[in-house]
Write a structure and sequence with these properties.
Layout (H helix, E strand, L loop, with lengths): L23 E2 L8 E2 L5 H15 L2 H4 L4 H13 L4 H5 L8 E4 L14 E4 L1 H10 L9
Length: about 140
């Protein structure tokens, strides 16, 4: 499948024609690095590790293991676009795999309980569900 965008060009032909969002300072206290995301690469891993260790329920944390990574990779290979955007006719690459019934409420990693989403749709979905900080698991 070829994605067409700016003036009908193929995405690989865009080159430097499309402006990128300017890099911002890393949000980690005292870090001078610039990043396209909230945290630089080094601190993104550190913040995720702290979140997993202290914020995520230990029972749930054990369910996000190597087996989950394989299930997620296989699901994304079959569903490479955000399913909510696709329903609106937009092709947005998948960023996250959502559990329809959260693991905290008895959900599983089975394909019928998964949904490919972009970051934006995932945050919107969790905010509509009333989950604190955008996610419940």
């Amino acid at each position: 499948m070829v994605l067409l965008g700016w003036k009908g060009c193929k995405k690989e032909d865009w080159g430097d024609a499309m402006p990128r969002k300017p890099k911002q300072p890393c949000a980690y206290p005292g870090c001078p690095r610039l990043s396209e995301r909230r945290y630089c690469e080094e601190h993104r891993k550190k913040v995720a590790s702290v979140y997993d260790r202290y914020t995520r329920d230990p029972v749930i944390r054990r369910k996000y293991n190597g087996q989950w990574q394989r299930i997620r990779k296989r699901y994304v290979s079959v569903h490479p676009f955000c399913e909510r955007c696709l329903a609106q006719g937009k092709l947005t690459p998948v960023a996250e795999v959502h559990h329809i019934l959260p693991l905290t409420r008895g959900g599983t990693h089975e394909e019928v309980n998964l949904m490919s989403l972009c970051r934006s749709c995932h945050m919107i979905l969790h905010s509509q569900l009333g989950d604190r900080n955008g996610k419940s698991h």
